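Q: What does the predicted 3D structure of Helitron_like_N domain-containing protein look like?
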Amino acid sequence: MFKKFRLSPNYWTHVKSQLYTLIANNGIPTFYITLNPNEKEWSDLWDFYSKVHGIVVNKYNINEFIAKDPALFSLFFRWRVNVFFKNCILANNGPLGTVTDFFLKYEYQQRGNQHLHGLIWTKEGHNLNPENHDEVIAYINKHITCKYVTEDEELNELIRKKQVDIKKFN
């Protein structure tokens, strides 16, 4: 009965057993991903909060509204993850290859917003020999890159703005 309540130990024991079953059936996951929200840039999130609360929401006040109504943010973030998975990760000829299975775990950051960790198994990844380092490196290089597309400056700017994590140290 308690395995349906997310705050109960029974729930997390059940989730852990589901993950162990996936690993037992599929082997080591091919990819580990983390997806973080970008509430300061998501104008569709602002519009969503604006419609629900009847007030203008923008990048300057969105965090205030997320703090007041975190359930709405959770709903929106999960919807956005579902759309991303359907149209990108799970799509035919998706960037990670043919996905055969996945496991997702939503968590909250210290500042309060939800993020996601995931394990992804691919058809091509099942055939990798972890002892063959050249094969593994070639597979990773096929699906993951750190290069800018130098011919397209607009795309490069988007990559710099959305994908580059700059650590600031004092």
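A (community wiki): The structure tokens above were generated from the sequence. The longest strand covers residues 99-108. Residues 38 and 162 are 8 Å apart (CA to CA).
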